[in-house]
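>> received
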Amino acid sequence: MSLSPHPNVMLQIAEKDISLIQKYIKIPSYQDLSFLNNGIYSIQSIHCAFFIDCSLSAKRYHHEMLQHIYRIISPPVLTSNHIIHAFYIQPTDNKVPIVYRVYQNVQQFIYELQRIKYYDIPSLPSFTELVKVIVNCISATFYSSQACVHLLIFYEDCISSSDFRTLLPLLEVCGRQGVTFLFTITSYHQSIEYAEFFLNGLVQLQSTISVTSTNDYGITTTKTERINPFIPISFRPPLLTKQDLSLIPIDVLHLYPIDLEETETMEGLIVSIEPKYFLNDQCFEFYSRPLLYRVQPTVLSKNKYPFARGGIRNAYHGINKLTKKKIVLKDFIEPTFASLTKYLHSLELNCAVEELASEFNQINTSFKRIKFIPTYLFVECDQHLIGKPVLSYEELMMVCKKQIYFVEPELNGEFIKFNDNNSWVNSEMYSATAQAFSHWTYFRTAKRLIVVDLQGVVNKEKSEYILTDPAVHHESQSKYFFSSTNLGQNGIAHFFESHQCNSVCKQLNIGKYIPGHDKDSDPIYSESVTTFPKVSK
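>> returned
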């Protein structure tokens, strides 16, 4: 398959393999993509569109990107006969099948953009795989300045997908065709070295190069050409680091008018739950809720842009201006999770896990302790309107009209993930105590729930794990319905599929999980709450 010669400008929205991508730049605004309206980057100059995606979690952002393009394009100014070639690429079993679509005019292309849903966009390969389908590096026609851009089967021995250096010769070939690349920048620690090398190579390619071509009569000529610039753009939510900015070429930094040190000050209430609420196992039932919440006025300073992002939350650096202590503020990524009710449910989960860890430590006297950092809610509001130390749920709802954040002390040390919510266990930095704690919580709660996704730092001086952001699989998904990390009975079964009882499990004499036992039965709720033998506090 080949394309006839056109103005050789491609729009490529590419992402590195998702295993290396966790941090991106930001969602493009109207201004970010406004250059597509005119000049060499006009949509009328784009004849090939590549829809690139590497993960389920990224698809929604690519959908947003498509909608941005749709809003920017003004149909009346576009020619009706402008053909766009679109390639949807999806890797399966080490193959790269290509779905090829031809839109006869821009109006048809725009119409398709309107109809695309984020979950319809196929999963696509890394930037390496993208280059594989753009060029056929063994074709001699690339040494002709009039060569077509070939989209043929790529020979695997021409490029190493694990080494970015092998991309540069291919990019140079594309550059000689006058191709302009728009691509993303990664900042994940495992790929930062590749990204730096990659961009250094791109800077070199932007310099003047010599192109040798041979005409039909065998006459060889050499002329000097300058390839078009490479413009990095990312289509992920706001998450920018200093390292990201250092990678962006200076001539395009104007696309990212961001001050990473910018902060904002907020006043409001710190909301917490009375610890005695968790002394009764009724807190694990789906209908339970604290009658009153403790509140304390405070003033916080928060960085405007997050420094990290997990599966469901953003994390921001901050300072409690009253205590002068460093804190971390977190909010839900998904707007659908941003209600006070869901924040309170999540706060209750964290507090319940804190109490379980406290009880575990009383019987676990020979191994490291498990400690979860205390979590509170910050509700932005006029704190002067509140004149009492406790509020009911209804009263909180009345004062909560602005932003809500989780607030935690800042963790110091190497952050380690010991297990996740889908059976994965860190074998390189294995923690017998962490695994035993997850196992123990299942039987401690009469097989109601299990605490997983254990992550945090190790305090060697105090011989304890300091953990944050746990997940809970509950037998009733309605109990913690706010959490997308709750996999219910399936999540419980997945944990025990990979769990092997260790010395801590055996010393604590924790029960054995029976696969399939009660897995398919409906949960039973009764007026009388089941109680369990508790260790005295």
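>> Residues 9-252 form one domain.
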